[in-house]
Amino acid sequence: MADQISQVPIRAPRLDRWSFGAAIIAALVLLPVATVVWLAFHPSEPIWGHLISTTLPRYMGNSVVLMLAVGTISGVVGTLSAWLVVMYRFPGRGWLQWALLTPLAIPAYVGAYALVDFLEYAGPVQTALRGAMGWESARDYWFPDIRSRGGAIVVISAALFPYVYLLARAAFRELSAQSFDVARALGAGPVARFRRVGLPLARPAIAAGMAVVMMETVNDFGTVEYFGVQTLTTGIFTVWLEGGNAGGAAQIACVILVLILVLATLEKLSRRRARFYALGRSERRPVAAPLGGLRGWVATLFCAGPVLVGFVLPVGVITSHALRSMDRWADPGLVRAAWHTLVTGGAAAVLTVAAALFLVYGVRLSGRALPRMLMPATLIGYAAPGAVLGLGLLIPLAWFDNRVADAVLAITGSDPGLILTGSAAAIVLAYAVRFFAIAQGACDSAMGRVSPSLPMAARALGRTAGGALGSVYMPMMRGSVATALLLVFVDAVKELPATLLLRPFNYNTLATRVYEQASLERIGEAAPAALIVTAVGLVAVAILARTQSRG
Questions:
Q1: Which residues of 322-358 are buried (b: 16+ CB within 10 A; e: fewer)?
Q2: pTM, whole model, 2 decimals?
Q3: Is the dihedral of CA 536, 539, 541, 544 positive or negative?
Q4: What is the model's pLDDT at position 56?
Q5: Do the Cβ atoms of 342 and 511 come closer than 8 Å?
Q6: Residues 312 and 329 in one domain
């Protein structure tokens, strides 16, 4: 027996192509974060003390207030609306359970432009009030200031609450009806059943949704910049682009990264001791109870309100502007922006999903520790805000571009220019890093559903590793891969901060065109691009709705 064991070959720790590829992918994803940390600790000018004594407290205070307020509002609205559509039948419930997802199609900055246009002094609301009341000017009445921190909280909450709703709805649907039967038998009313049974069991999902909402709130740039709210993200743009200090911007970016790390840690701690066990195979799912009369209509209004604010109002305002002058649809700038968006978003989707497939397949195939250790590290890009990634990518890419240009000039005598930062390549790379977690999650989940015996049989018949991937895995993963491509493309279309930082001169995507035109108060010029972005976003909503309906 000892002789037989001694003859078993031991796999020497070597760097095969899958491990090497995983290391390259992980390095590219971690590059912007590592660059930001290095710049923060090696600034060209010592600005940290100046930031602490001047602007950093304001940036930090506004960011924390926004995070807490948006997280709380989104948590309350998302959780209660999910509870109502799962546990009760009321007028409009059938379409509201899907309509509550539609605000995800509206980027927060588009909602901000629409809300201001609707509620500003010259907008239809205040104009109607002056006409009805006989007021002559703003001195005759009081109206809340829309361009304020409060306005930003409303807009961002209306755009992000579906994250909580989506996860809370899935959690409530998976609960056991027996738990509620026991609570009802013990005399617990509807409110008590929600507070003592439903809420504790769904708390991990709600906490995860609120964490995502707060991370996205930190990432927001278009909304807070338009409303004049100075946050950590706007501080990166101000210190770097206006102050010319990359080190100071990196130090602010590190503060954002610390905030994200704290959020992720708190989210994990909040569900560390939470456990939910199925009672058995025969357990029943909750059955929606009828909710009639006034209470039913109250539930309808509660669920319809967020949809009206987060989707119907922005789409209505933008559509009215877009249809008012149809000639804007033929604007050459809009056509170029749409083409740039298609190219960058499409290239990023293909690159991201291909890299995710390689990484996930490599981890499963090689069985080595290095790819398996590196795989979770590639998820950090989704947590890092776009402004942080933009800053972290531009510095090393610019250094690389200049070195390559100098080498080519010395050898050939001709200057090739900036290959990466002078083209859309930097934008594509930023999208790939930012949304790699989406592609990786989809590929890993789909590959995990393929029986290991199928690729083993293909290998036994002489197929190579790549052949097994193409002939066995890909036909069975086609739907998941297509979904991942669409989701990455949709998120890339809506991404604003990274695009603003990395785009070449005079290079617009649909998102940056909306931002530029709206910043100049040209809502009509921004409307066609905003409507296209919204239409693309509805694709992601449709995918989510289809996934939820199958669950």
A1: beeeeebeeeeebeebbebbeebbebbbebbbebbbb
A2: 0.85
A3: negative
A4: 92
A5: no
A6: no
